[in-house]
């Protein structure tokens, strides 16, 4: 298969005998499935948008995010090379390693203090980073937006961007919608990522010669990690409570 062939039948807007409209996430899932199957050397983002009758901007947004996650890379102007969705978990795990090391010298608010208009890739990393940092399986879009909001800009604009990011992450099965409306569940190997990140954190403590309880332990202590997550979750719910009071 080459990049000139459509990944989904052009003009296909319904499915099944009842003519139920296909959701945009279903279209992107089909595109990803084809890319995973055929591993195209290069493909045109514009061609995919046109052949699948999807808004150009959304297709560019999607593949910009995929590029940030290492799922694909730029081959030439307007063309990308597909690497594979399994690369996303590796990229996220490496990011979370850095986040845990950064958290050694930063509090909860500063750790998730994003610029006023973060890129979709930056949002994606920090969304999953928040799940892992709190060791929580499910979060709502509202909760995530309140953590990231700078208190000055329009939070509704942030929520729209977060919804887009969560939808894209759902396409590659890193996030799943919960049965509770507006809530999302993390769908990665959380235990492995957390264990790896805390080992990186311990290595960073040794290199920096910081004196702490962690530095005195021969391995990452489960009780210590448990207490750390309890404290982080308390900070998180304090942010939620303050937002409720100021609303």
Automatic annotation (TrEMBL):
A GO biological-process term: regulation of DNA-templated transcription
Protein name as annotated: E2F/DP family winged-helix DNA-binding domain-containing protein
Keyword Nucleotide-binding: no
InterPro entries attached to this UniProt entry: E2F_WHTH_DNA-bd_dom (IPR003316), WH-like_DNA-bd_sf (IPR036388), WH_DNA-bd_sf (IPR036390)
GO cellular component: nucleus; transcription regulator complex
UniProt keywords, alphabetically: DNA-binding, Nucleus, Transcription, Transcription regulation
UniProt main location, coarse: nucleus
Pfam families with a match to the protein in the record: WHD_E2F_TDP
SMART domains given in the database record: E2F_TDP
Domain E2F/DP family winged-helix DNA-binding: 23-84
Native source organism of the sequence: Tritrichomonas foetus
Family assignment from sequence similarity: Belongs to the E2F/DP family.
């Amino acid at each position: 298969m080459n990049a000139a062939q459509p990944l989904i039948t052009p003009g296909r807007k319904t499915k099944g005998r009842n003519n139920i409209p296909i959701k945009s996430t279903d279209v992107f899932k089909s595109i990803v499935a084809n890319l995973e199957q055929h591993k195209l050397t290069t493909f045109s983002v514009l061609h995919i948008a046109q052949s699948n009758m999807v808004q150009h901007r959304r297709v560019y947004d999607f593949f910009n995010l995929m590029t940030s996650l290492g799922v694909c890379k730029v081959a030439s102007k307007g063309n990308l090379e597909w690497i594979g969705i399994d690369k996303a978990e590796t990229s996220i795990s490496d990011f979370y390693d850095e986040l845990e090391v950064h958290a050694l010298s930063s509090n909860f608010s500063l750790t998730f203090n994003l610029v006023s208009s973060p890129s979709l890739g930056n949002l994606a990393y920090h969304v999953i980073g928040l799940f892992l940092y709190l060791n929580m399986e499910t979060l709502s879009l509202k909760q995530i937006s309140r953590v990231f909001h700078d208190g000055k800009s329009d939070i509704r604009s942030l929520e729209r961007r977060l919804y887009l990011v969560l939808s894209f992450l759902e396409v590659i099965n890193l996030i799943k919608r919960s049965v509770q409306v507006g809530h999302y569940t993390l769908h990665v190997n959380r235990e492995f990522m957390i264990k790896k990140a805390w080992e990186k954190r311990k290595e960073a403590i040794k290199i920096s010669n910081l004196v702490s309880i962690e530095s005195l332990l021969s391995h990452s202590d489960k009780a210590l990690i448990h207490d750390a997550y309890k404290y982080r979750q308390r900070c998180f719910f304090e942010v939620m409570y303050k937002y409720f009071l100021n609303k």
